Amino acid sequence: MKVIVLGGGRVGGPMAMDLNKDERFEVTVADYSDKALNNIKTKCPEISTIKKDLSNPEDVISLVNDYDLAVNAVPGFMGFKTAKAIIKAGKNSVCISFYEEDPFELDQLAKENNVTMIMDCGVFPGMGNALIMYLAQKLESVENVMVYVGGLPVVREWPTEYKAVFSPMDVIEEYIRPARCIENGVLVVRPALSEVEHIFFPQIGTLEAFNTDGLRTLLKTVKAQNMKEKTLRYPGHAEKMTMLRKLGFFSKEKNIEIKGMKVSPLEMTAQILFPEWELKPGEPDITIFRAIVEGIKDGQKIRYTINMFDRYCAETDVISMARTTGYTATVALRMVVDGVYTHKGISPPEYMGKYPECIEYLLKGLKERGVNWEICREK
Where are the beta strands (DSSP E) in the chain? Predict the structure, then answer.
């Protein structure tokens, strides 16, 4: 089967290399970046590469038409229109792109084209969603869902003490999108970076957690009295990013003139921050996830805790965020190919969580790749 991976960056590249290990797949990567494509070719010469600007949906349709399966790993600002193009081409796919639009707007189109598209198929949104749905179905009612998730460099370097382990522009989107949550059964919107709290994790120490808009489709698919998601960073990060946002550095309005050209503060900020946020070759990162799901079963209060902690793999030179995000997507794509998951239309990850056989498949596939998720139950 011919697979096209759209986007060969720090997550898309490792996804292509993982799929290439499966003798059933003939893998091609499309990207506009020579650096990204050359990196893939150096590590895995047998993968085909295409230099392509993926910003035009019609070009994406034409490209994808020649393949059996697609992986959408483009940056978030391109994600929705790329997903729509894949559906129009009639190809089953998985998507890790973090876009703002409502994916269910594409559901009818996907059904009309007989397409299975698993979107948001990463860590969280991603595997965390699937496990939350899996546990929610074990309960008669869900009272509380609390999610903490983050990707970080192992070494803290002043001044930002952060490195972007996925698309840097998508990181900034997390800091400017209002955060939706459920409080007492009602949808509430909080500012991103708000309600900072400190939590101790044995593997890394004390981290800060703050509101971000990560619940996404869970707001519609899981009914809970209270539900919130927070991003994890080293202490002090939220204050720095809040200051930049307050001063207008993240504004998308093109109101700055430089040498006769109008640019937005965000474009300028990106040019300054992104080199600072770039992981050095071989620099280790970590990914950490914790979710607490509480509810009622047979008149008893039950509490589940989901944990995942992962590190950069020096043997394969794959960063943790690529392992935890990318391998979730590649295992899910195999699950579609194997006929374990067959839902037509748009599938948020929690749809997979409705089926124990899918959870078993995902956990097994991730464990084989060294990514271990654990579920603990307390009464």
Answer: 2-6, 26-31, 48-51, 69-72, 92-95, 116-118, 141-153, 179-183, 186-190, 197-201, 205-211, 224-233, 256-258, 261-263, 285-297, 300-311, 345-347, 373-378
Residue 372 CB contacts under 8 Å (≥ 6 apart), including other chains: 308, 310, 366
Fold of 2-124+321-373: Rossmann fold (3.40.50)
Statement: residue 167 has pLDDT above 80: no
Provide the 8-state DSSP code for 324: I
CA distances (Å), origin 199, targets 231, 280, 303 = 11, 28, 18
pLDDT at residue 258, as a whole number? 82
Residue ranges per domain, the chain?
Answer: 2-124+321-373, 127-311
Q: Are strands 373-378 and 186-190 parallel, antiparallel or unpaired?
A: unpaired
Pairing, β 2-6 against β 26-31:
parallel
pLDDT at site 150: 96
User: With contact defined as beta carbons under 8 Å apart, do 124 and 289 qualify?
Assistant: yes
17 bridge partner residues? none
Please determine, for residue 166, whether its predicted confidence score (pLDDT) is greater than 80.
no
Q: How far is CA 288 from CA 33, 89, 123, 322, in A?
A: 29, 36, 9, 13
Across the strands, what pairs with 306?
Answer: 291, 375
- Per-residue pLDDT tens digits for 286-331: 999 999 999 999 999 999 999 999 999 999 999 999 999 999 999 9
pLDDT surpassing 80 at residue 344: yes
CA distances from 333 to 144, 329, 362, 365 (A): 31, 6, 10, 11
Q: What is the pLDDT of residue 379?
A: 64
Phi, psi of 10 (to 5 degrees): -65, -15
Residues paired with residue 109 on neighbouring β-strands, in sequence order = none
CA distance 82 to 73: 9
pTM: 0.94
Domain 127-311, what fold?
Answer: Dihydrodipicolinate Reductase; domain 2 (3.30.360)
Q: What is the pLDDT of residue 76?
A: 86
115 has a pLDDT exceeding 90: yes
- Which residue reads 């898309």 in tokens? 12
Burial of 156 (0-12, 13-18, 19+ CB in 10 A): middle
The predicted pLDDT at position 260 comes to 86
